[in-house]
Amino acid sequence: MRITPRRAAAGLAASALVVTLTACSTSGGGAEESGEIDMESQVGYMEDFEVGTTFKATEPVEFSLLYRDHPDYPFKDDWPIVEHLKNNQNVEFEYVNVPLADLATRRSVLISSGDGPDIMPSIYAGEEAQFRNALLPISDYVQYMPNFQDKIEKWGLQAEVDQLRQEDGKFYLLPGIHEIAKPQYSIAVRADLWEKAGITEDPETWDEFKEQLEAVKEANPDIDYPFSDKWSINSPMEQTLNAAAPNFGTTAGTGFINGLWWDEEAGEFTYAGASDGYRDLVTYFASLVEDGLMDPESVTQEMEQGEQKFASGRVAAISSNDQELVKYRDNFEQLGTKEAEVHQIVVPAGPYGSYLVAGSRRESGIVFGAEAAKDDDFLAMLQFVDWLYYSDEGLEFSKWGVEGETFEWEGDKRVLKDDIDVNGLNPGAPKELRKDFGYHNGVWMLAHGSTEELDKSMLRDEVVEFLDGMNQKEELPLPPAITYDEMQQEQATLYQTNLQDIVYQNTAQFIVGDRPLSEWDDYVAELEAAGMADYVELANSAVAGE
After folding, report:
1. Most C-beta atoms within 10 A of its C-beta, which of 256, 434, 538, 545?
2. Measured over all CA atoms, what is the biggest interatomic distance in the chain, rounded to whole angstroms?
């Protein structure tokens, strides 16, 4: 995208520095279907960009960006991260600013209409498949991304990347990646109320968790419910069900995506929403509601509602991650509830065992508008993305900020400046790293995908303990890639959307008792009527190598 009238002159200057990667060109811009880039048409890129190189565009460039505006740290166009990227990397953004709650819907509209911005972060694997024709096949261009390639090789993640490939052999999502698995979501409990019930150990199984809820309810009769869930933005209890599902032998919540479950023993996909494991999962949480142990509003309430209930003492446990723990403690402090002690439990095992989701070292990632390859700063964009999201320097910058400004080194450890807090590292500090500086922001750091050292560098001891506990679980086998052709993809998308709507609606109804579980077979029949068998057959016929 053009930013200054100097583009034409810069383009001529660049032509004198042509490298011999390709001799091809296109009428619309700088990229061929093969992934080769006509260097003569490109401006702003660095000729000597490689692992260890700090990216700085050779002239000002601007990329359109789909920005996920998080309510906990509302967007500010004068954040230091924005200013540093402008001054040090020569990069500015044309923002398409979308509230977090509207992200999936707005992104779908933008991509489907052909108006998708150049860079669109915060999208999970599987969500991109239906938009393939309107997205850039980024796999064609990873040869221009040395940091990405380096980490995929060093960390042994090629199988996770290959699992993203579509029928044409290409992948359209550039994933966030971890050196080690970094699960975040579980349940935070009021440890003081647990101790009042005589409980000092975390539950090892979900059945034991239910027993603990019963004991907490009996020991604390003033609470409304022992447990409430606050994340139902796109589907009911989406983070809790996602974390619990592998332990029931299924997939759910944010991990539901295409609704398919890979049966490793049978060597085929089945439909998760109709499986025995999904029924067991839903039955378990429905039993919590039926026994007065879980707030029935969990399947619909806004985040703030759940947080208020927890802060006011109306509930004793709530869905959580390491960042939310800090928020909960701040809320208790503001209300003067000094006795409140909050602790996040390791996700309990279930009837299927103790598992992490498949591909747990892969994070939400980025997709790119198909038209991005036509821009004369396309190569500069690839280099910038590679530096920011995959280089050690870029990963540190987006997470910690700038040495001397937001943090200092103490020996071999980074320490935030005394007046800055994030995740409770400096409780009571007047400034916050996300709200006031823009760092530690999932838009610019792919949900914290990073090296093990960086992943743990900002974690409190309790979070490292949680992470180590979760990494003792076994990771589910990675399913094979489903490689639909264009017509199959259209069919699959229709099936997927209709089936998902039925699953989400009935998941909520079953859990809160609006539909009795005795009607499970009727529900499965509704899925069958919506094409479930044809959808599963379509997926299995499109498994890579079939």
Report:
1. 256
2. 79
C-alpha distances in Å from residue 298, one per residue of 113, 231, 511: 34, 8, 9
Residue whose entry in the numeric block shows the structure tokens 């619990």: 244
- For residues 262 and 28, give the distance between their C-alpha atoms in angstroms, rounded to a whole number: 42
In Å, how far are 72, 364, 478, 543 from 160, measured between CA atoms? 31, 13, 8, 15
What is d(CA 484, CA 280) in angstroms, rounded to the nearest whole number? 31
- Tell me the CATH number for domain 186-356+484-541: 3.40.190.10
pLDDT digits (tens, 9 = 90+) for 24-78: 333 334 554 568 999 999 999 999 999 999 999 999 999 999 999 999 999 999 9
Q: Which long-range contacts (CB under 8 A, 24 or more apart) does 27-30 make?
A: 28/374, 29/373, 29/374, 29/375, 29/376, 29/378, 30/373, 30/374, 30/375, 30/376, 30/378, 30/379
Q: What is the DSSP string of 400-459?
A: H--BTTTEEEETTEEEE-TTEESTTSSTT-SEEIIIII--S-HHHHGGG---HHHHHHT-
Can you state the angle between helices 520-529 and 486-512, rounded to 10 degrees?
160
- All CATH 3.40.190.10 domain ranges of the chain, comma separated, are 7-46+54-180+362-388, 186-356+484-541
Q: Are 82 and 89 a contacting pair, CB within 8 Å?
A: no
Q: Are 406 and 420 in contact (CB under 8 A)?
A: yes
- The string of pLDDT tens digits covering residues 359-386 is 678 888 999 999 999 999 999 999 999 9
Among residues 171, 306, 148, 169, the alpha carbon closest in space to that of 227 is found at 306
Residue type present at position 136:
L
Give the Cα separation of 209 and 244 in Å (integer). 12
- Separation between Cα atoms, residue 267 and residue 261, nearest integer Å: 11
Contact 378, 62 (CB under 8 A): no
CATH of 7-46+54-180+362-388, one of 1.20.120.10, 3.20.20.70, 3.40.50.300, 3.40.190.10: 3.40.190.10
Encode 124-145 in three state secondary structure. CCCCCHHHHHHECCHHHHHHHC
